[in-house]
Amino acid sequence: MNQRLLVVSAHAADWVWRCSGTIAKYKKLGAEVWVICLSHGERGESGEVWKQPNQTTETVKATRLKESEAASSYLGVDHFEMWDYPDHPLVASQELLDRLNEKMREFKPTLIITHDWHDDTNADHCVASEATFTAFGMSRHKGVPSQCSDTTEIVQIYGFEPSQTERSGYVPQVYMDITDVWETKQEAMALIKAQPKTCIIHSRVNTHRGWQAGRMPGGKGIQYAESYTVRYPIILKDKLF
Amino acid sequence: MNQRLLVVSAHAADWVWRCSGTIAKYKKLGAEVWVICLSHGERGESGEVWKQPNQTTETVKATRLKESEAASSYLGVDHFEMWDYPDHPLVASQELLDRLNEKMREFKPTLIITHDWHDDTNADHCVASEATFTAFGMSRHKGVPSQCSDTTEIVQIYGFEPSQTERSGYVPQVYMDITDVWETKQEAMALIKAQPKTCIIHSRVNTHRGWQAGRMPGGKGIQYAESYTVRYPIILKDKLF
Amino acid sequence: MNQRLLVVSAHAADWVWRCSGTIAKYKKLGAEVWVICLSHGERGESGEVWKQPNQTTETVKATRLKESEAASSYLGVDHFEMWDYPDHPLVASQELLDRLNEKMREFKPTLIITHDWHDDTNADHCVASEATFTAFGMSRHKGVPSQCSDTTEIVQIYGFEPSQTERSGYVPQVYMDITDVWETKQEAMALIKAQPKTCIIHSRVNTHRGWQAGRMPGGKGIQYAESYTVRYPIILKDKLF
Amino acid sequence: MNQRLLVVSAHAADWVWRCSGTIAKYKKLGAEVWVICLSHGERGESGEVWKQPNQTTETVKATRLKESEAASSYLGVDHFEMWDYPDHPLVASQELLDRLNEKMREFKPTLIITHDWHDDTNADHCVASEATFTAFGMSRHKGVPSQCSDTTEIVQIYGFEPSQTERSGYVPQVYMDITDVWETKQEAMALIKAQPKTCIIHSRVNTHRGWQAGRMPGGKGIQYAESYTVRYPIILKDKLF
Amino acid sequence: MNQRLLVVSAHAADWVWRCSGTIAKYKKLGAEVWVICLSHGERGESGEVWKQPNQTTETVKATRLKESEAASSYLGVDHFEMWDYPDHPLVASQELLDRLNEKMREFKPTLIITHDWHDDTNADHCVASEATFTAFGMSRHKGVPSQCSDTTEIVQIYGFEPSQTERSGYVPQVYMDITDVWETKQEAMALIKAQPKTCIIHSRVNTHRGWQAGRMPGGKGIQYAESYTVRYPIILKDKLF
Amino acid sequence: MNQRLLVVSAHAADWVWRCSGTIAKYKKLGAEVWVICLSHGERGESGEVWKQPNQTTETVKATRLKESEAASSYLGVDHFEMWDYPDHPLVASQELLDRLNEKMREFKPTLIITHDWHDDTNADHCVASEATFTAFGMSRHKGVPSQCSDTTEIVQIYGFEPSQTERSGYVPQVYMDITDVWETKQEAMALIKAQPKTCIIHSRVNTHRGWQAGRMPGGKGIQYAESYTVRYPIILKDKLF
User: F31: distance to nearest CA of chain E, Å?
Assistant: First the structure.
C-alpha cells in the first residue's frame, strides 16, 4: 500500500483518542503515518497532571510529550513531531501556517486527518482544523513561498469527532471499522496516563459508533468504529459503494 | 458483479436526466437494474406534449410511456414498470407504499437510487423520496404484512439532484464519474422527446459536476459526473477512500 | 396598475393582522385584490368569542365571518370568500387543492400572499402555505384536470410572519413600507373584535419592522412595515435595487 | 408534588428506553404518571420476537403488551394504555388525534414527554411527536369538538432522543440527572425481553449523557442522565438557573 | 442568595438595553454583580453625541462613561469597569483575553451574561461574546498563566439579544420575567442619553418578549421579559421545569 | 442614472468572472464604477502563469495586473485599484480595513458588490467579504478615525457566487439578467488569459443561472444571469416586485 497519512492534532493526545484505530489500520496495511501535535495541551488538557505536586509548565509538557511519543511508538507511527505552540488559546499564526505548508510539501500526504471544523466547547480544535485546511491550500499552489518547490495533490481531509457532537453540529459521514485493531487502540489509549478517564469515554464512543455502523449498509459485524466528516465531496470512479 | 440496482422515479423521465449515467455504468459492470416510475408525469412534466393538437390525458401518457420505455431499453434496464399514479400532486397512499414494499422484497436491491428528499420547487419529488424510504423500512421488517415472507437487507439509498439545488438545500456528497458512459447517457436523454430542452440542461449539469469532481480528491480526468446525497452514513471496512 | 393580488389565509383574520397594510397599498394603486379564508378559525382563534354566553360553532363562525367581511369591505377588497374548512387541524384535502387550483386559474394572480411555510406554533398556517404552493403548481400545468382550460403564469409567492418568528426559522427577506396606509390598517384591525389584543400585538410588530426597515438600505423615513419571505428568488431585469 | 406527567410513545417500549429514568424520578416525587403507547410496534420493533417459532401478529402484540405493562407496573405508572394502531407506518389519523385530545383534556397534564420531532431513521417517531403536539393544541381550544368541556393549560413538551442523534439534527437542550434512580431504570429495561440488546445501548447512552452532564454547569456528581429537547422556550420567573 | 453575576458588554450601554432587568432582579435577590464594558462605543454607538458641537474622541468617551456609570450606580451594580478598547472594530487581543481571564479568576462568577455569539449587523458583539467564552475557558484551567492560582467552576453563559434577531439566527431559549423590576429598567435606560431612541426600541422588545412569555408554559401574568440563549445545555437534578 | 457601484475583489479577476455582466449593465446605464482588487492572486489563482518558464512573484503579478486592467478598461470601469496584499492567505489587517474605510468615504457608493460571505473552498473570498462589510460599518460612523470627515449612507451589499455553491451554503437570492450585455462579458472574460478555463466555467454558470431565472417570476426571456445574495433585507416603498 502506497498511502501516506498525515494527522494534525491540536494537543498532545487528541489524535490518540479520536483516530488511533484508523492509524493502526493503516499501519497494518503498510502505509506511512506522520503525526504532528501543534501543542502539548499543557494548559487545557492536563488538569490531572497539574494535581500532582511541584508541577511547572515544563514538567507538565515533558509528561505529555513522553506519553504521546509512547503511544506513537506503540502504534508504529513513522514520524512524530511536537510543535510546542501554547494552547488555550491555540493561535494559527502565519509562522504556524508556513510550517505546516512546508511539512505538507515534504510529506505529500495521500490523506489527511485532523479535527472536524466545528467544536462548540474547544476552540483550539477548530483552530487546528482550519489551520490544516488553510496550510493544505497553500501547499497546493506553486506561487506560495516555500523552500520546497513541489506542490501537493488535492487529497481528502477527514475530520474526527468533537466531544459534544450534537451541540457542535457534527454529523458523522463516514464510519471506519476498527474492530480488528481494537485491542491495539486500547493499548495506545492506556499509555496516555495524563488523562486517565478519557480512555473510558472514547471506548464508549467507539462502541456506540460500532453499534450504529453495524446497523448501517455494509456494516454487518462491526463492533467498534471511529467516525469522521469529510471536507471535500467523495469522488467515485468505478461504482457507488 | 452481483449488484441489483433499484431506481424509483416520481415521473416518467426523472431517472433518465438524473441517474442514467450511473445506470449505464452498472449495466456495463453486469448489474441487474430495475426502474419504477410512480407516475407518467402527464400533468406537470408534459407541457410540450400538451401543446400538440388533440391531446388527452391518455395520449399524453402513451407518449411518455413509449419514450421512457425506449430509454429503458436503450440502457439495457432489466425491468421497467410504470405505475400510473396521478402526479401534481403525487400522493403516497398506503397502497402505493405496500406495492413498493412488495417490489423491494421481490427484487432485494443491493442499492437504491431515488430523488433527494428535498426539492423546493417540485413536491412530487419529495413524496417519491419519502415513499421509497418508508417502503424500504417496511420491507426490512418481518412483521409488516407482505405476500413475500423474505425481508431485505439494509442498503444505501442515494438521492439524485433537484433542479434548484441551492434553494432545496441539496449538497452533493458523492460524485459518480460517468465520463466513460457519457455518450450512452446522451443517447438515452435524446429519446425523451417530450422534454426537448431538458437534455441540454442536464448535459450542462453533468458537465459542471464533472468539472467540480475533476478538481476534488481522486477526481483527476473526470469530465462528466452525476452527483448524489446518501441517506445513511458511509461504512468503510478496509480503508478510507 | 394592472395587478391582481391573491391572498390565502388559514383562518378568518390572519390576513388582516399580517398583510392588510400591503392590501391597502395595492388598492390605493388600483390593483384588484381577492382574499380567500380557508377556515373561520372557529376553534383555534376564537377563544374570546367562546367566552361569551350561549355560543355554538355556528354562532362563533357567524361572528368571525361578519368581522372579516367588514375588514374586507373597509379595505376595498374586490372579492372575499370564506371556505369554511374546519381548523385545528386544517387539512389540505385533494378537494381543497382542486378548489384553489380552479380559483387561481380563474383569477390569474400577478402576485400571491399567504403564510410563510414555517410556523412552529400553529400547524394550520403551514398547511395553508403548502396548499397554496401546491395548488399554484397545479394551476400552471395544462394537464391538471380543471374546468378552466387556462393556466397561470409563474408569479412570486410572499409569506407573511408567524407569531414566534425566531423559533419558526422565519427570516424577513422583504420589508413593505406601510407608513402611508398605517391608519387604514389600524381601522381594519379594529374591526376584528373577536381577537381584541391581537391588534395591539401586530401594531407593535409593524412598528418594530418599521424601525428595522428605517435603518436598512433605502428605508429612510419608514415608520411602519410588514415583512415577508419570498418563495422564489427575485429576478431583476434592469438593475439591482 | 402536584404534577401530572403524560408520556406518549410511538411503540410499546420507546418510553422505557428513553424516559423511564425521569418517570422513576417523578414517581419518587409523588407525581401521577400516565403512559400511552400508540402501537405495539409489532412490525418494526419486534424482530427478535418474530424469530421465535409460530409467531403471528397477535402473539407478537401479546408479548409486547405484557412486557410493557410489566415495566409500567414496576415503575409505578398510574395509568397505562395500549392503543393498538399499526406501526411502520404509524399514521396520525383524525381519529387518533381526537382520541389524544380527549385523553389530554381528561388528564390535564402539567408536563408531556414524547419523541423529539426529528428522527432520521424512524418516521413513526416523528409522527408520534407531531400527533402529540397537534392534539395538545386541540385540547387547549374551547371550540374544538370534545366530550370534555374543559381545556388544558399550556405546558412544556419534552422530546426524548432518537437513535441517530446527529443525523436527525437532535441537540440535547436539557439533561435530567437519573443517577439516583438508575437501578430502577435498569430493572425496568430488563423487563423488555423482546428487545434484548436495546437495554445495553441505552445504558451506554445514559452513561454518556451522564458524563457530559457531569462536566456542564451544575452537573457535578451526575453519573447517568436522560437528555431532552423542549418544544417551547423556557420561562423563568425567579432567576436564571 | 450567594450568586455572583458577571456581565461582559462590547460597548458602554449594550448591557443596559439588553440585561439590566435581569441585573435589577439579581440585585433584589442579594447577588453581587460586576459589569465590564470592553469599549466606550465611542465610534459605532455614539452618533447622537457626535452631532453635538466640538466633540472629540475624548469628550465622547467621557459622556459615554458618565452615563454608563450612572446606570450602573442606579442599578446597584457592585463593580463597574470600563476597559477602553477601541470599537468598530473591537479586537480580541491576547492581552484582552488575559485580562478577562484574570478578572474571572478574581470574581469567580456563578453565572455570566454577555452577547449572543451571533450578530449579523454588529461584529463587535460577536467578538465580545467569543472573547468571554475563550477567556472563561482559560480561567478554568490550572495551566493557563495567571497571577491568580485559583481556577473557576464551569457556570452557564447567557447570550442576550442582537438587534436583528432573525437575520442573526438568534433563537430565544430562555425568557426571564422582568415585570417586577420594569420601572427600574426604564429608569436605568433613561440615564443613557447618548442613545435617546434606544430606550423606546428595547421597551418594545421587552414588551414583545413579555407577551410571548405570557403565552408559554409557566408564563401566565408576565408583561415584560428579557430573552437569552444558553451556551451550555441545561442540567437539572431535581425535576424538569 | 446617479449610481456609484463599488466592487471589492479578493484577487485580480474574481470580479470579472462573477459580476462583470452587472458592471457592463451599470456602465450602460451611466453609473460610475470603481473596482478594488485586494491582491493579485499571484499565489492561489495563477497556476497557469507559473507553468510558463522563468516566472517570479513579480512577473506573475505583472501579468495578472495587466490583464485585469485590460478587462477593466474594456468594461469602462471608471477607477481601478490593485492593492497588492499577499493572497493564500489574505489577511484583513487593521491597515487594510482603514484603507477600505477611507476609500468608501471618498467614493460614497450607492451599492457594493463583493464575495458572498461563505466560500467553503477559498478562505480568501470570505476574508474579502467580511473586510468589506466591516470597513463599510466603519465608514458609516462619525467617530471612526478618518481623513475624510464625511460618512456613508447604508447601501445594499451584494455577494457574488463561490465555486462550490451548495457546499458553501450559498443560496442565490437575486438574479440579474445580463442577456443584453452577454457579449461584453464574454469579451471581458477572454482578456484574462492567466485563467484560460475559467471563462468556460463561468459561461456555463451564467447560462445555468439564466435558465433558472427564465423559469422564475418575471424572468421570461432571460438567457444569461449572474446571481447574488444580499447582506441586508430588501426594503420596498412602492410595491412588491
Answer: 28
